[in-house]
């Protein structure tokens, strides 16, 4: 899958999470601006998952094994919060309020991205 397709898949998955949860917000004056914000955040999310997440998962590997993989849910939620903070620093209108919302949002994002990735991979 190409880079552009991955960014679009991330943007659609983030849009689904923002649509489902009130504490995940995408700001913009019109739908076009919100779509551009989601594409930018999708790129940031992809970079965070490509650069930061593997290091965190490697360092926490013993705890991941100890918790039978449940710690991966927490790590994914933290990556979503980190993406939100980076997006805010870059001036993108994307915020995630609260760890619980981030946890549920990361589950939705993972499921939607997996489905879209499987559909678009063919």
TrEMBL record:
The chain crosses the membrane at residues 34-56, 63-87, 99-120. Keywords: Membrane, Transmembrane, Transmembrane helix. It comes from the Bacteria. The keyword Transmembrane helix applies. InterPro entries: Phage_holin_4_2. This is Putative membrane protein. It comes from uncultured Nocardioidaceae bacterium.
